[in-house]
Each structure stands twice: as C-alpha cells, then as structure tokens.
Amino acid sequence: MENQYQHTVLFVDDEPSILKSLKRVFRKEDYTILTAENADEGLQKLSELNGSITLIISDQKMPGMNGAQFLEKSIKIAPDAMRFLLTGYSDMDAAIEAINKGEIHRYLTKPWNDDDLRLHVRSAVEQYVLKQENLRLTSLTTKQNQELKQLNENLEQRVKERAEAILLQNKKLMALNNRLENSLTETIRLLTSLIETINPQLGSYMKHTAQIAKEIAEAFNLDAKLVTQVETAGLLHDIGLLGLPPKTINKDPKLMDEGELETYRQHPVLSALTLESIEQLKPIGKIILTHHEQIDGNGFPNGLKQEQIPLEGKILAVAADFSAVLKLWPKGTKAFMDQAKRALGANNLNDIELDDPEIMRAEIAGLFIEFGANTRYNVDVVNCLINTLHYGKEKPNSVWLEYTCVKEGMTLMEDLRVADGRMLLSRGTRLNDSTVKAIQNIGDREMLKGKIHVKVD
C-alpha cells in the first residue's frame, strides 16, 4: 500500500551536523528527504510543497521559533502530516506543549538510536498511509450514506438496495485486502477503523464486545482458532448497522415503530453478507448471523432456539448485550434509568447503587443479562459472565499502579493521558526504559491523574 504514495520527510534543526546525521540515517530509505536550518525555512518549504508531506521531524531548541511553535504553525500548511519532536529529557515541558498545540504523534529524545529512529519513521509512514486510506473510504461511505437517505420508502426495496450498497463496499474492501497482500489482520483492522471513523460510539462498543466475548470463550476452553473467531465476530458484529440513520442505531428497540424495527432486524443478515465474499471471514459471518437469536426461539432473523444456536453465537449474544448496556445506553443517569425500567421493570431496580454511575451501569448490565438467562441467553454463558468474569473486573495480572511503580516490560491496558485528558501513550503500548522514564518525569511534575492501568506479564 505504501507504493501508492511518494513519501517526503522534512527535518528541521539549526545544527547542520544534526541534519547531515539524519540524512545519513535514511540514505537507503525510499523517502524524499528535505532539510531546513530554522523554523521559518521549514515553513517556507512546507508552503512550496502545498502540504504534500508525510512526516515532519523538528528539533525543540532552535533560535527564534522553537520546535513546539513550529509544529503548531505547520498544522495549517500540512494538516495531514505526521509530526515528531526531538527533545532532551530535561525539556519535558516542551514535549507536553508540542503534544497539546503541535499535535505531535511522537517525541524522541536525543541522542537517538538509528535503528529505533528508522522503525519509528516507518511506523509513522504506515500510519499516514492508513489514515489516507481511511479518509478515502470515509468519503466514499459518506457519499453512499447520502444516497441511502434518498431510497424509496418501500421497506423491501430499501433493504435490497442497502444490501447492494454494502456488497459494493465489500468488493472495494476486498480490492484493498488484495493490495494488502491478502492479510486477514489488516482487513479486520481496516474494517474496525472504518466503523470507528463513521460512528465512534459504535466502534467503541464493538471493541468492548470483542474483549468480553474473547474472555468468555477462553473461560469455555474453546480452541485458539474459535476464540479468535469469537473475538473477531465481536469486532464486526454490527457492521450491518452502518447503513442505518444514527438515531435508529441508538434507539431502544422497544421504542421503534414497525418499519424501524423491521429494518433493524435485518442488520445481522447484512453484517454476515458483508463478510460473505471474504473466504476467511465466512465463519465469522455465521457467528454474527446468530447473535440476536434467543434460547426460547423468539429472536431474529431466523427464530433459532436452544441447540440450533452455536455456542459461539450464544457467547456473542451475551457479550454484545452486556456491552450495549455499558456503551450504547444513554449517558445521562435519568435517561439510562428510564431505559433500565423499560427493560427490567422499576421494582427490580430498588437495590441498585446510584451514587457511582460506573457501578450503577455494571450492576444493571449484569442484572439485564441475568434476567435473560434461559429465555434470551444460554444459562451456562450467563453464569460464565457473572461467576468467571465478575462483570468484567480485572484479572489478577491486570493492576492499577502509581506512576512511580510502573516497570519496563509492562503493557498499558488503557490510554495514558495527562490530567487535562490529552493522550500521551495509547493502549497496548509495551513500556521500555525510555517510556518508563518519561512517565515518571511527567508524573513528578504532577501532570498525571490517578493510577496507571497495566498488564504485568
């Protein structure tokens, strides 16, 4: 996919020797390398390129305009470019300023390691390419959604045309998948990214569903292949909702009119249909097709019951509905409780703790699943969620630590942010000596809020 783009990298540093060293590091890489000895020269070169640049790497300490100020100004000229800041450990305030104002994607400390620098640059180039592909697909999807709004009111025709639109989108995704050398992992990542771009709330919910479904599948001792299929089904199970208006996606089914409900009931079929032409995703589609079926036979789309529903579908049903309460139900306490009363009845909510919104959501989510045992959900899967996962509480190797206690080799379980909410490191980052020192340095400046959630191997 990188071959579609001619990548240009701009280095800005007031020391000619540093610029020569940087050019030497990348002399064998297939990049166009530009240099500037000050911020004004750097801005001039960006203007000459009309913003057509992949990566900007700037030193922080420069006469006149410093690196943080330069990177902030560069956003107007090259908004899509990736940005790195070169700084020393003693200049962490500058790094935070650049994160806040310059929208940098990584800061690097001097002196750098050549191999690490090349890896960081390659990673930035890959991220830039994925971003451009996502923008292209987002534009395409926006256009298709506009066309969907103009569809005929006839429900059968609307569903047919929506299915055709999704099949067309699926062909385009297949073409992209071939360009990515038939990589299943890259295809799934692209689909997930597409979902998050179009509907961030839906994307977050489906990621949470995937995690819960994976843990339940592992607790059932399913083999690794089936666990992966269940997790992937969680990531993609509601992709068929993307063609619906957002107000319909977020609406309580109990409040839908007959037309909305009938359209909504088609989404498992559309989700499975979207994955049908990708051979490796066919088993995923079969799981997704059954995640709204119920043990008592009152589910959809096919009214399956009991053993007609595969275990993987039963697991996904519990994980999806549990996550829906936590992620898709209204954010406000009153609206949330109104929906809970419709689903569970007011008398069943008398003992719910309302002081802590997170505890309230978890308790109601668990109660919602318990009430559906042996009617909507398989009782063994429900017991697994309640007894084994304890409503999703952390496993023993997942802990919350003070910033002074984090160690090299630990993995972040949640995004690490400064106190005002801006992200420093993303979830899944494995900490090394450099990132540990940076965290402790920032923590010493009282810029971190609360404990850090990490996995201890």
Task: Please sum up the structure shown.
With 457 residues, the chain is of the alpha/beta class. 54% of the residues lie in helices and 9% in strands.
Walk me through the structure.
This protein is α/β, with parallel strands linked by helices. Helix content is 54%, strand content 9%. The protein contains 18 helices and 10 strands. The strands form 3 sheets. Strands 2-1-3-4-5 form a 5-stranded parallel sheet, sandwiched between helices. It has a 3-stranded antiparallel sheet with strand order 6-10-7, with no helix packed on it. A two-stranded antiparallel ribbon has the order 8-9. The protein is globular. Residues 392-396 have low confidence and may be disordered.
Strand order of the largest sheet: 2-1-3-4-5
Q: What is the succession of H and E elements?
A: EHEHEHEHEHHHHHHHHHHHHHEEEEHE
Q: Number of DSSP helices?
A: 18
Number of strands: 10
Structural class: alpha/beta
What would you report as the Rg, rounded to the nearest angstrom?
A: 25 Å
**Residue windows where pLDDT falls under 50 for at least 5 positions:** 392-396
Spatial shape = globular
Distance N terminus to C terminus?
Answer: 34 Å
Task: Name a few traits of the molecule.
457 residues; alpha/beta; 3-stranded antiparallel beta sheet; 18 helices; 54% helix; globular
